[in-house]
Amino acid sequence: xxxxxxxxxxxxxxxxxxxxxxxxxxxxxxxxxxxxxxxxxxxxxxxxxxxxxxxxxxxxxxxxxxxxxxxxxxxxxxxxxxxxxxxxxxxxxxxxxxxxxxxxxxxxxxxxxxxxxxxxxxxxxxxxxxxxxxxxxxxxxxxxxxxxxxxxxxxxxxxxxxxxxxxxxxxxxxxxxxxxxxxxxxxxxxxxxxxxxxxxxxxxxxxxxxxxxxxxxxxxxxxxxxxxxxxxxxxxxxxxxxxxxxxxxxxxxxxxxxxxxxxxxxxxxxxxxxxxxxxxxxxxxxxxxxxxxxxxxxxxxxx
Length: 303
Hints:
By secondary structure, this protein is mainly α. It has one domain (about 40-295): Ferritin, core subunit, four-helix bundle (Ferritin, Up-down Bundle). Helix content is about 60%, strand content about 0%. It is built from 12 helices and no strands. The protein has helices spanning about 5-15, 45-65, 75-100, 105-110, 120-125, 135-140, 145-165, 170-200, 205-215, 230-235, 245-260, 280-295.
């Protein structure tokens, strides 16, 4: 019988049996040919820090979504959630690689081995206070309704930001945004469908969806206050001022909750984003313990 290569054979045989990487071995490099030079007048440290902010949000939310694998309410939804998480991991990979390419590695490089790619070093070998994600993505999942409300909020914000980043003066950020915005629009629509289904469903599903909204809304307080890094990069045409997307996000989330017969919780007052400064709750350390455990125990391993 003629040998028929499987997906597992393809992973094993790719790249001369070198170590394999979970983010997409064998797929086309989405940033091939993109100019990686830091734009004139831009501080490389600022650019790297901004990429960490966007990349860490994607990485932590992906890790939260994977916690639903084997626990989702439907088999089809389990597959869908896994694919959403993979989209976010792909975005995290590109953003952390960009951060590493401009020199933002710090203590993570000291803890990793020299052969580990920058994006892996940043994902697996930073401590919690070196991460720059917001409270919205670090919070525990709660039940399925809360997860869908959180996904709706996070993807709505991210769509608004990446849509504008397609015009960034940094060609790498612009390319990442162009690739990611369609993925995120699907994430937003997928979550919105579930919020509508749950909010306008049974009395129990409505209660859970409302409880989810009430739990998620306070986590939005950090999302629209720019850090100094974001302000400088926005002025330079590199980044998006988060305050600029507030109106769009409020409009979309209000529309979805209204159609789902849910009460829109009071919008929290904007506060300085502690997460962007590396100030996180104990949930982050717990989540990173699961994410980073294997890599830290076997830092030189390949598979």
